[in-house]
């Protein structure tokens, strides 16, 4: 049935094409006859040898109008052989008259074939193989689905779906092989990731750059450089472990320091006026979600936020000397920002203590962070904790500044004999030139873990409440400025 329909439709198309061809031939012959008649009746047109001008230009040359001036004008000699001439007409007459081309009398004859409708005999299959009607079968409109039986339609769609399934399966298999190859070859060398040694070198360079910026009063630029050091180290460690643990800890620690400022009254505001529940509603620090606001005061919430920040910042760069030094530099920078812009950085001293505590938690051999934390605690009145820290620093890095501060703490605690001895020792070391606390040795993470002196910092869940150089407790309170640094 389908074959018969296609044959009938092919016959109809052939008949239609023949009809159109005949009409086009008739129209073409009539146009050519009209043009030949016009050519016979038209006057002869003058033509120049070697140039065929337009009809308007020929009329103007052959039949000048009455409006034009009939007086002769000088005409350039066209027969002169000069290189400057634009046109040359070698066949022109010498008398200056224009030579006319003979008219064309012979018009081509056109034979018009009669319009003969096509019959079934004309559609007989020729001897040779003709592919003229082969594309027509592919251009036939699809049969309506209503004309198909239910079984035929189901077979049609099933065949179409079956033809698509192998291609989709091949693409999925190729994609799986590609992903497996990516996982196999995704190494630090193929992707260009920084090695631990290179990260340590870049971190030291950025810390030195930050100190230079701070010395030129570029405090915010220096802070950005130091945070970049922390981000770089935490990102590299997470890349090795395959989990974003350290980067999330860094973000949580810095966020907790910022959110802690919301619990400090501003201006003449009192703590009783602070709505803790409203403040904590906009915070992301987990402490705000786990505390009963009826039994807590704003300063208690602030203390919790600072302690949370210490643990998170320490976990972000645990066991990394460069990360510990970056935290120590951030603590010193916080003190300077509090002096320069006290209104904008009201909790700068509390933040400085948090950074120094985090530096010691990350790397307990950081003598600079230990000495800075001891002076902050001493200014806050925590002399016992400050004395213990200074004793540890003096045992590992004895110098005149540490011994003088230690003698001051011992005087506050009533240890006069020890204070005098340390003061005399500080004077002797000052004469020898040992007056600074800059004897910090940079170690790579591998050398630090193999040194056997101090183990890397433990995870956040096992960190003690307070840590000094040897793990002894220390308080965290805002310090005044009295002890030498």
Topology (elements, then pairings):
Blueprint: H1 2-41, H2 55-62, H3 134-139, H4 150-185, H5 188-191, H6 196-215, H7 219-241, H8 245-260, H9 276-281, H10 298-316, H11 321-340, H12 348-362, H13 367-379, H14 383-396, H15 400-413, H16 416-432, H17 445-451
Characterise this structure.
This protein is mainly α and 485 residues long. It has a domain at 196-397 and 437-462. Helix content is 57%, strand content 0%. It has 17 helices and no strands. The chain has helices spanning 2-41, 55-62, 134-139, 150-185, 188-191, 196-215, 219-241, 245-260, 276-281, 298-316, 321-340, 348-362, 367-379, 383-396, 400-413, 416-432, 445-451. Helix 7 (219-241) runs antiparallel to helix 11, helix 11 (321-340) packs antiparallel against helix 12 (348-362) and helix 14 runs antiparallel to helix 15 (400-413). The N and C termini lie far apart (104 Å). Residues 45-70, 75-92, 130-140, 437-445 and 451-482 have low confidence and may be disordered.
Uncertain segments: 45-70, 75-92, 130-140, 437-445, 451-482
Order of helices and strands: HHHHHHHHHHHHHHHHH
Structural class estimated from helices and strands: mainly alpha
- Helix content class: 55-70%
Total helical segments: 17
Distance between the termini: 104 Å
Note the main sheet.
Answer: none
Silhouette: elongated
Strand content of the residues, in percent?
under 5%
Question: Over the alpha carbons, how many angstroms does the gyration radius reach?
Answer: 50 Å
Mean pLDDT: 74
Per DSSP E runs of 2 or more residues, the count of β-strands stands at 0
């Amino acid at each position: 049935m389908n074959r018969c329909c296609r044959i009938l439709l092919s016959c109809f198309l052939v008949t239609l094409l023949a009809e159109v061809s005949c009409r086009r031939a008739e129209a073409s012959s009539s146009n050519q006859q009209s043009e030949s008649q016009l050519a016979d009746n038209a006057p002869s047109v003058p033509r120049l040898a070697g140039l065929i001008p337009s009809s308007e230009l020929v009329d103007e040359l052959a039949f000048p109008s009455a409006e034009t001036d009939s007086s002769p004008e000088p005409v350039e000699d066209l027969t002169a052989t000069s290189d400057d001439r634009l046109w040359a007409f070698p066949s022109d007459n010498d008398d200056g008259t224009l030579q006319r081309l003979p008219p064309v009398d012979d018009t081509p004859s056109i034979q018009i074939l009669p319009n003969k409708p096509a019959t079934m005999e004309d559609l007989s299959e020729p001897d040779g193989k003709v592919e003229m009607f082969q594309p027509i079968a592919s251009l036939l409109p699809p049969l309506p689905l209503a004309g198909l039986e239910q079984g035929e339609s189901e077979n049609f769609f099933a065949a179409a779906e079956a033809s698509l399934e192998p291609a989709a399966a091949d693409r999925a298999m190729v994609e799986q092989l590609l992903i497996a190859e990516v996982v196999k070859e995704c190494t630090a060398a193929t992707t260009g990731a920084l090695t631990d040694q290179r990260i340590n070198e870049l971190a030291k360079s950025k810390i030195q750059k930050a100190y230079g910026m701070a010395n030129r009063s570029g405090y915010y630029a220096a802070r950005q450089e130091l945070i970049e050091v922390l981000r770089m180290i935490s990102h590299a460690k997470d890349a090795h472990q395959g989990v974003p643990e350290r980067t999330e800890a860094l973000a949580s620690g810095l966020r907790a320091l910022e959110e802690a400022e919301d619990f400090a009254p501003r201006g003449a505001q009192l703590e009783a006026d602070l709505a803790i529940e409203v403040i904590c509603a906009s915070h992301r620090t987990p402490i705000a979600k786990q505390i009963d606001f009826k039994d807590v005061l704003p300063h208690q919430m602030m203390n919790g936020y600072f302690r949370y920040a210490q643990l998170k910042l320490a976990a972000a760069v645990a066991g990394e000397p460069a990360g510990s030094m970056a935290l120590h530099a951030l603590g010193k920078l916080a003190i300077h920002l509090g002096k320069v812009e006290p209104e904008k950085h009201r909790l700068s001293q509390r933040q400085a203590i948090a950074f120094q505590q985090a530096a010691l938690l990350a790397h307990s051999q950081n003598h600079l962070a230990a000495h800075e934390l001891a002076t902050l605690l001493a200014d806050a009145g925590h002399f016992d904790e400050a004395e213990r820290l200074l004793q540890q620093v003096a045992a590992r890095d004895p110098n005149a500044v540490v011994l003088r501060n230690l003698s001051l703490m011992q005087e506050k605690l009533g240890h006069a004999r020890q204070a005098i001895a340390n003061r005399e020792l500080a004077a002797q070391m000052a004469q020898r030139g040992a007056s600074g606390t800059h004897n910090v040795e940079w170690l790579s993470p591998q050398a630090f873990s193999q040194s056997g002196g101090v183990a890397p910092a433990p995870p956040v869940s096992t960190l003690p409440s307070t840590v000094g150089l040897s793990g002894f407790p220390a308080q965290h309170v805002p310090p005044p400025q009295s002890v030498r640094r």
